[in-house]
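Researcher: Let's try something more involved. This one mixes different molecule types, so please make sure each is placed in the same coordinate frame as the others.
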Amino acid sequence: MAASDLKIRDGLRLGLGHLGYAAIAFVFLLPLWWAVVSSLRPNTRVFADVFPFTPKALLPSPVSLEAYVGIIQLGFGQIILNTLLVAAITTIAGLTLNAAAGFAFAIFDFKGKRIILSLVILSFMLPFEAIALPLYNVMRQLGWLDSIAALVAPGITNGLVMFLFYQFFRQVPMDYLEAARPDGVSWPNILLRIYVPLSLPTCISAALLLFVFQWEAFLWPLLAMPSQEFKVIQVGMAAFQQQYGTIWNQLFAVAVVTALIPIALLLPLQRHYVQGLAGAGIKG
Amino acid sequence: MIRQSSQALLVALLAPALLGLLVFRLYPIAIAIISSFYTTVFGDAAFTGFGNYASLFSDRVFWKSLQVTLWFNLLVNPIQIAISLGLALLYVRGFPGAGVYQVFFLMPIGVSVPTAVIVWRVMLSQGGLANGLLDLVGVAPQAWLTSSRLALYSIIAIATWKGASYWMVFIVGGLQNISPELYDAARVDGVRPWQRLIFITLPLLRPALLFVLAADVSINFLLFAPIYMLTQGGPAGSTDVLMYEAYKQGFIFGDMGRAMAVVVVIVAVLLIVVALQFKLLSAREQGA
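Model: All components are placed in one shared frame. Result:
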């Protein structure tokens, strides 16, 4: 077989591969694309060309930003700020607490460590939804309902994140510690100068997990904020759907903005997110 | 001295996280179990023993809901895992331009369940995109969300679209852990691609797949947002999963004791299912 024949066959195979991948990507992206297109149309034109379907349905014409102006006027800017606040506090506190615990589990030996560690992991394997209803009672007893604390506090300790740090710190050679400790370097110095810089990639993965957890929270904010004076994005969006279900273009604009913020974070940090999740899964 | 300071440090490092675990995880579990034995009479809690459970087990709505939950999970979990596995196998294949598709495959991770629900609800409406595209190939418009025949399956489709790329990530992690030399050796020995998948990839992926299966089942057993936002358990109870039933009992009918009893039942059934999975799948390992 001539070399040029091989080249053609390889090229053909690559082309077919691209076609297959593009078809699958199309299925994944179609809902998102349609949401973006519809959010850029005037409300009366959202269903134009959809039924019967013409390809024009997938292009925004005429382009209009009326929907985005509309949702800002309805207060979605404030709702986004609220959610960013909750997610930011959770991320910072969650990084500190879970890293500290992960570090302790990785470096120290103490009585009952294995049992406590497996208890931690087991209790966090149970999805948040399972304890949302009884957690409502806990918050009522604490008097935290309708406060930001009720949203933030349960999201801080995160088993997946703790486990991620535990896995990471276990791989750091003990030589670092053994070299620094006898020289009289204090613990805060060891932590801040050696372990924190080393763990920065893990911190990025962990921060993404914590942030996305709060950004996507729905059932818990629905229960924990009965008066809904402080709205977060997912609940605000669901309420919008129930109230203004036929202002389609604004509904889509809300959906696009809600998806855009985590996607904007995930795309540049994709590798970290994937490694973070995958690392937590396989070595368990 | 050193030991003392280390011990203080250990407590300082561990205490906040363990306190969080105690107050926000373990205590609620205790509350759920305890309050499932109480009922509310004129605003006061009154002990009823197994009263809530007895009334649940004699309630046809509860049995229907359990049945819907099990059927939903029997379908959604294998579908999601099969699709995630397929995606993961495509994801790890390197070829010129593959990076673009990797990004596309990951996109739905950034989309929350409520966002997915809102977009899909309009797509699945009577004059929506789904019916429009099906019309091209001559299929009559369907009432995707408002017929008791289709609603549950539409929710399965939405959950799968949203979930597949998330679970794919875990499987990709497992795939990347398999040494490429194994594949090279197999290729030299003339092993066919599908044989490589069955005899090398899948056995070595077992830990990752087992984790994904357990985690996916847990999430889907407790799925709430799509039912709350789309169907409220209807039409005719066809999507009334246990988690929505618990919410309804507690926050619409105001019967917290009964709601907690439902939650306890969900978690008990979930634990049995996950334990069974581990037992069955590790038993197969011994046989092999």
